[in-house]
Every structure is written in structure tokens, then in C-alpha cells.
Amino acid sequence: MRFVQRLVAEGWPIAGAVSRLHAETPPDAGQGGLGRVGLLGQVADVDSEAVLVAYQTARAMMRAAHPRDLREALVALVERLGGTVGAAAEQDEEVLPVDLSMGEGPPVLPRAPAASIARMRLETILPGLVEDARELANRQRLGARRVTQEA
């Protein structure tokens, strides 16, 4: 974590600093391709709290019955990792361009200061979980349509 903070203080973008950390961290024997699980494994070495929050969010998403439950789980993740959320109309350098709404209500975007731990955590963990949440929301909607059509 200190390595990434030092690089950001030197002017590196957070994503570049994290990439450099990954490049300079030797992979575990037998790990094979990095993939999403491998990335979380590397983040765990740096920030076990963020990985725990991501894991708890993934569990909440698996239990979600509606897309609004997925939205709530993602908003809680952002807040637990030190970010905030707000309307899409409010654009500034703190906004991450990822809609957390899952089609439930107006768009909601996460925010975190550019050179912060919260931003690094969100940029590392949020994309994969949002992708999974979108897939779950689509499955929930398809299931609801089938039930409606059968009735």
C-alpha cells in the first residue's frame, strides 16, 4: 500500500501505480493467469480489509432478490471502502464513471478523491463486482419475465 501511495505522490495515476505494484510482485507458484481471483489475491496482500469488504458484498449480491438489492450492496461497498455516491449529473474529478443503479432509479456514481486509498480500492475492486451485479440483475429480470409470461 505504501508503495502505491509513494508512486501516486510522485505523480503516477493510481491505476498505473497498482499495475507497477503487480508487475513487481512475483506471482505465487502455480497461480497461472492473473484473472479476477488472482488480482484479488494480490490485493489481499496489500489491503485485506478491502478484499473482505468485496467478499461480503459478493455474498450479499448472491442473496439479492431484486436489482435494487444489488444497487444497495454496491452503494454499501463504496461507502465501506471510503467513497461516497451521488447523482450522475454532478461530474467532477472525483467521479468514477460506473453506474451503480442497476437500472433501478436514476444513475448513481461512486466518488473518491483522485489520490486516495479509497479511490485505489474502488478502481481495483468495483469493476468486477459491478460486472457481476449487472449479470445478476439481467438474470433476475429474465426470471421475472418468465414468471409473468407463464401466469
Features:
mainly alpha, 151 residues, two-stranded antiparallel ribbon, elongated, 6 helices, 5% strand
Topology:
Layout (H helix, E strand, L loop, with lengths): L1 H8 L4 H11 L10 H12 L1 H15 L4 H14 L3 E4 L20 E4 L5 H34 L1
Antiparallel strand pairs: 1-2
Q: Estimate the strand proportion.
A: 5-15%
Number of domains: 1
* Total beta-strand segments: 2
Mean pLDDT: 80
Q: Strand order within the widest sheet?
A: 1-2
**Structural class designation:** mainly alpha
Secondary-structure element series: HHHHHEEH
- Tally of helical runs: 6
What characterizes the major β-sheet? 2 strands, antiparallel
Portion in helices: 55-70%
Low-confidence segments, ≥5 residues, pLDDT <50? 27-35
Q: How far do the termini sit from each other?
A: 54 Å
The geometry reads as elongated
